[in-house]
Amino acid sequence: MKTFLVVVITTAVTWITVSFIDGVHTRVERLWLISAIKAPGRMALGQIQADLNAGRYALAKAEIDTFMDTWQRFYSGPDSFRGLGIGDIMVSFSKLDTNSIVAHPSSAPSPMPRTAANFRSVTTNMTLQQVMDGFGMYDRVRGSGISRYEYDFADGSAMLLSPEWPFSPTNRIMAVTFYQSTNEIKLYP
Question: Whole-angstrom Cα distance, residue 107 to residue 80?
Fold first, then answer.
């Protein structure tokens, strides 16, 4: 009888331990999937969509090519299912030389350069859609989980708009932040 109890207790403890370790492993992999694939992928697609909407077709194509190279490295390279995933895609986008990318011939430059003074009327009582209707399309989407829409100005400064949840253009803006330089903006603010 003692031997039977020892075997049953040992089996139960082993099963509980293996189940716990497997559960932790599954949760770690799920967290990695979200942080290394899902969030960066959504941000990259938002950036590409913003450039397409703004008529920056050559830049969007360069971003798509960069995205595909990064995805290929993740999908079939040594980082497959481990490492960075595509977590560094926005860093890759920031390294694109936007000055050497020729604009699409049909994308006409804005008649007046954007300045922070033009945007002083933007308040938290507005929606992102109202800002887009009055000032044009934003330049990029920033953020990891919380989307912030960036407008770049001619002098190198920028403004970030944060709409309320679920962060769509029809939601009211909850924060308006001006930066003296786009270099002051954290990569994943």
Answer: 38
pLDDT at 189 over 50: no
Domains of the chain: 1-108 (no CATH), 110-189 (3.30.1450)
Examine residue 166 and say whether the peptide bond preceding it is cis (omega within 30 degrees of 0).
yes
Q: Which of 124, 123, 169 is nearest to 147 (CA)?
A: 169
Sorted by sequence, the CB contacts under 8 Å of residue 93 that are 6+ apart come out as 44, 47, 63, 66
**What tens digit of pLDDT does each residue of 37-55 get?**
777 777 788 888 888 887 7
For 10-45, what is each residue's pLDDT tens digit?
A: 999 999 999 999 888 888 777 766 666 777 777 788
Element (H, E) at 151: strand 148-152
Q: Is 185 helix (H, G, I), strand (E, B) or coil?
A: coil
What is the enclosing helix (H) or strand (E) of 129? helix 128-135
